[in-house]
Write a structure and sequence with these properties.
This protein is an alpha+beta fold and 91 residues long. The protein has 3 helices and 2 strands, in the order ββααα.
Length: 91
């Protein structure tokens, strides 16, 4: 059994720690990251993984860590967007 992978993600002045505990969690993070890339880039599954792999190579960060960072950052952004107050209601 492998030890958990801890990744500290810094975003908008906030530190979030993501703990990936096993192979399934790592696979899920990579799949979620590919989905995020597919939605943002309007590309397919293979192209999304290629983009993730290329970013991993450019930044010298393992794919599993980069995927976890992307998912955590995306989740934080979604929370920020959902929590953002709306302007006065129009009637």
């Amino acid at each position: 059994m492998t030890s958990p992978l801890r990744i500290d993600v810094f975003w908008d002045g906030v530190v979030a720690t993501v703990t990936v505990t096993g192979e399934l969690d790592i696979t899920a993070a990579i799949e979620q990251a590919k989905g995020i890339i597919m939605a943002q880039s309007a590309c397919g599954d293979a192209d999304a993984f290629d983009k993730l792999r290329e970013a991993s190579q450019r930044s010298n960060v393992p794919v599993r860590e980069l995927a976890a960072q992307l998912v955590a950052k995306s989740a934080g952004m979604a929370g920020t967007i959902a929590a953002k107050p709306r302007g006065p209601a129009r009637r």
